[in-house]
Each structure stands twice: as structure tokens, then as C-alpha cells.
Amino acid sequence: MSAREFRSLHPDLLFVPYTGYADSTSYAKTTFVFTDPCGVDSRPEEDCPVRGTLAYIDVEFGFESADRPTLFMELWGAVFRDSSAPVYCYRTSVEEAGGRGSLKGREIVAHWDSESGFWATLKKRSFPREVPDSARTSYRIGWGEHSHDVAVPNRTPCDDRTNPD
């Protein structure tokens, strides 16, 4: 879908330089990433319009209890459960700056492809020691050409390739 067609269907979305458009709710932020977004911070959309086509959609959910499914999984979980094993799945250690220092946790990344060209990447980041009941979950959803480049140091494969959690 072209940027012009997308904008005519969704005129109320927020313009985001370097990306395309975004929408936020109390539970999630959705970003629509285009192949030729405006590459300038200080100019309004009229002076630097988004061009190209929709490349993928990012959906990010805030911290929530790790043992409850996210709204995204409630709505889209069947797509992942019914698909074959991920093309790749790995775990890696992560570190984020926190209030009194850094938080040490883990990230799980799994990627699926379908014969129709649909693809999805799940990322789940959690900090079990410092924040035992929380996790941040995000999904990248797209269609067509994409990369499987996963040059991540110190990664280990997921234990069960059909269920990355």
C-alpha cells in the first residue's frame, strides 16, 4: 500500500519523521513504517511527506504480568500457534538503565514466515530478578521481502522451537 493511499484511509494517525505514522493507546503503541519516510525532524508533514510503501507494522505493549497473555496474543495468537515452527528463535541477555543502576534480563526473539508472504517477529524482554512479574512484548508484522540477518552476540537457541516462551 502506498503512503498516499494509507494516509487517505488513516488521516488521524500521528506523523512520525524517519518512520511514517503511529498511533498510541493506553495498552499499546502501533507504528506504521514506510520505505521512504520523511528524514527530517523539524519539518511538518506538508513540507516533507511520507512516500514509498508500507514496509511493516510494529506493535509494542507496555510492561505487564508475564503470566497473562497480551491483548495482541489474545487477538492474533492463533496465527502464531497454528503456524509451523519459527524460522529462527533465540534467547539473549539484555541490560537496561534503571533507577538505581542497570536492570539485567533476557530477551526472546522468534520469527515466522508464511507461504503467503506474511511474516512476524516476536520480541519479549523481561527482567525476572529486579521486576519478576513484568515483561515487555513487541511484534513486527510485515509482508513480502525482509531480512533474516540475526547477527546477535551470545545468543542461544530457544529450547522448544514451536513455543519461544
Automatic annotation (TrEMBL):
It comes from the Bacteria. This is Uncharacterized protein.
